[in-house]
Structure to design on (178 residues):
């Protein structure tokens, strides 16, 4: 059951309601400001998180690149063409090997496919990044059984300690000129 309201109460309701509306408007403005501040904080947090995440990714990628690049042993000119004018005379050639990587590399061994006619000595077995070493090759045509045909090619394998590049090949080609 509802009781009728007097005019006096109704007037008071209207006064309260205009004050309430002002307070409500003030509360909404304050809430909007708080909401904007919270949104700004959320955006700032997201940016900070993304920045930290991308810096982490950059560090990981750089480390991976260092691992991937490692040492790189390169022969500046991996093929030598020898002309044989006198079969009894040995021919010498220096192969220059450069480390173009970021880590040191060790040359462990040089192996010839003609152990009786092709010999190698190494100037320096440990090669730092940016430095080079020399592999001196001596070819003895008189000891080469294959050389009878006129032209030959022999391979030297340079073995390293780096698993991703265990060998580098050097080639000595020889042609008769007598």
């Amino acid at each position: 059951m509802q009781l009728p309201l007097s005019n006096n109460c109704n007037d008071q309701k209207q006064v309260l309601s205009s004050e309430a509306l002002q307070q409500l408007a003030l509360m909404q403005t304050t809430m909007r400001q708080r909401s904007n501040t919270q949104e700004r904080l959320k955006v700032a947090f997201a940016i900070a998180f993304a920045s930290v995440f991308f810096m982490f990714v950059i560090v990981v990628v750089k480390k991976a690149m260092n691992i991937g690049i490692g040492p790189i042993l390169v022969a500046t000119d991996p093929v030598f063409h020898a002309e044989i004018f006198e079969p009894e005379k040995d021919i010498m050639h220096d192969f220059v090997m450069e480390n173009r990587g970021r880590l040191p590399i060790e040359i462990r061994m040089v192996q010839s496919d003609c152990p009786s006619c092709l010999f190698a000595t190494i100037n320096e077995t440990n090669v730092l990044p940016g430095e080079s070493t020399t592999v001196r090759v001596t070819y003895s045509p008189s000891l080469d059984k294959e050389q009878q045909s006129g032209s030959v090619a022999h391979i030297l394998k340079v073995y390293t300690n780096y698993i991703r590049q265990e060998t580098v090949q050097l080639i000595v080609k020889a042609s008769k000129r007598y």
